[in-house]
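Input/output pair, single chain:
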Amino acid sequence: MKLIVGLGNPGKKYESTRHNMGFMAVDLLSDQAQIDVDKEVFHGLMGRGKIFGEDVILFKPTTYMNLSGTAVQEVVHYFKIELDDIVVIFDDMALEPGNIRLRKEGSSGGHKGMQNIIDCLSSEKIKRIRIGIGEPGDNDNIDYVLSKPLKDERPLIEEAIENAVRAVKEYLKSDFDRAMNNYN
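Output:
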């Protein structure tokens, strides 16, 4: 079973903000795969189904970003999911809007949601797809990630979300190396 996690913050206040790129990617994937992500369990919203014959769990932690690992850990332990079968999708200020990066492992790069997942699962060997949101000009990172993208950034970010979903599908259809080759 594969676990696809999208990171974000719950509630209307945070919808469509830069910090909710992971939620938006999981929402798009759920629409395309016709898997409802609406079951409230494990401190999050979950949906189960099949994509390209693979059993898949789509999951959006509702613990708020910095405690995402708690919810992910619950799902992983309950379903006995191997670390190699997890993909986490989240925003990244180090990438320009419109860009995505796939990695099989590594540090959190300062992303607190990803860091909490690494801490809770005791491993950096977690696949991830980072969606670029760019850096704030005034160095106020919190306000920046919790704000909505500018009008000229929206098409770039929408394209990045679509590419992230395509990369997940490539991973499920083939493997993560092929997805990295095609989307990095």
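Helices lie at 21-33, 68-79, 112-121, 141-145, 154-173, 176-183. Strands lie at 2-6, 39-41, 44-51, 54-61, 86-92, 100-103, 127-132.
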